[in-house]
Amino acid sequence: MRLDRRTLCGLALTLLTAAAAAQGLGDLGLIVERNSGAVLVVDTDPPAVLARIEGLGDLSHATAVFSPDMRHAFVFARDGGLSKLDLLERRLVKRIVQAGNSIGGAISEDGRLLAVANYEPGGVNLFTTDTLEAVGEIPAVDGQGRRSKVVGLEDAPGNRFVYSLFEAGEIRLLDAATRPPRVVGRHPAGRQPYDGLVTPDGRYYLAGLFGEDGVDVLDLWNPEKGLRRVLPEYGRGERRLPVYKMPHLEGWAEAGGRLFLPGVGRHELFVVDRRDFSVVARVPLHGQPVFAVAQPDGRRVWVNFAPPHNDTVQVVDAESLETIATLKPGKGVLHMEFTPRGGRVWLSVRDENRVRIYDTQRLEAVGELPAREPSGIFFTARAHRIGL
Amino acid sequence: MAAPDAARRAELEGLLRNDCGACHGGRLHGGLGPALTPAALAGRDPAALAATILAGRPGTPMPPWRGLLSEEDARWLAERLIMGERNDAP
Known about the structure:
In chain A, about 5% of the residues lie in helices and about 50% in strands. By secondary structure, chain A is mainly beta. A four-stranded antiparallel β-sheet of chain A has the order 3-2-1-32, with no helix packed on it. Chain A has a four-stranded antiparallel β-sheet with strand order 4-5-6-7, with no helix packed on it. A four-stranded antiparallel β-sheet of chain A has the order 8-9-10-11, with no helix packed on it. By secondary structure, chain B is mainly alpha-helical. Chain B has one domain (about 5-85): Orthogonal Bundle (Cytochrome Bc1 Complex, Chain D, domain 2), CATH 1.10.760.10. Chain B starts with 5 loop residues before the first helix and ends in a 7-residue tail after the last helix. The mean pLDDT of chain B is about 90. At the A-B interface, loops of A face helix 1 of B.
């Protein structure tokens, strides 16, 4: 058989497509290049950049979630952009601009809906994951008709979403299992809730408060019972310490029956008993913590810091509460992401334009990848976790 | 008042994009904090803006940057914000 050039090209393309289709997705991830409007599609084993996808908008503080089959990633941009990426074909499938200004989002338990938290105009917008078609606009308006910025939007079991209203000081529960989705709970909270998290078991929503001390907790098993205020000693305290970078709640670590919370403005890691939310200990730290993340095995908690200490990462033993390592990965350590079983942690080092990879047993750098001012790192294993 | 030198200005540009940007948006179009674009700041007094940078805004998440920034740094940032990116004087 004689093959002309066109047939050969077609054959090559078919083979390429087949090769791409044979790729597993469970050890892939995304690295956000915050000031370039781009993300890198990466393989974690062996570490490699597979593709760079551009044109995603203002990615400062951008986050990503994954479809349950891990094939698609959804990137929430600061400028209201919402992008759907195909990790198998390594391309942008669709991008919409759904609001003026937004701050993250979440994917429903069934993987069919995305909820986006918006600053401008404040509210929650809902989209289908298959086509990014708008299916709901939930305003965030308080009793006096004032709009609020939506923060701390998280997915909860039962195809629900839970979020906080910054100005109104309210926590709301949205049922996305019904059509149209509707708000099924409105709970008056403390002043200026600024971020939230759902515990890894999906039971509690915790909202950190900027305007006062303490944490508001919603029991998602019994939301009708309302909020409970816990941790009265958690916050900026009487002196109203300046906070150069708000601690992130989503990273709040849970290990061995204890929660590890980054102090707000304080150079401390709060260790909290998970059963009654009492403070067990305060571990002194190198600076103002931003993220405190537990290794997947719960053995150690890794902490990064706000400026001017953001060249440092500290590792705290979850059992002895000793600081066992003070690492200097480089200037501008913004994010830490563990490989699914915790053998490696990837650190984005913004000011050095690289991602450094550490062995979590030896506490040593074992590799790195180039990236332009990297910020968030998101591995596909997040697809199967609640509240990420 | 000595303006920041080129190296310091580069650091301050980084601070604007990254640290200010954390709340005000990577392109300073606003977020948890208000927009800091030349349009949004039109008519503002650089001295007053510099004072806000140094002292923060009590009751809001805006921290006082005194301690990390000098008076000269704050003044340069204020003018840079009001005039836009092309202000690379002196």
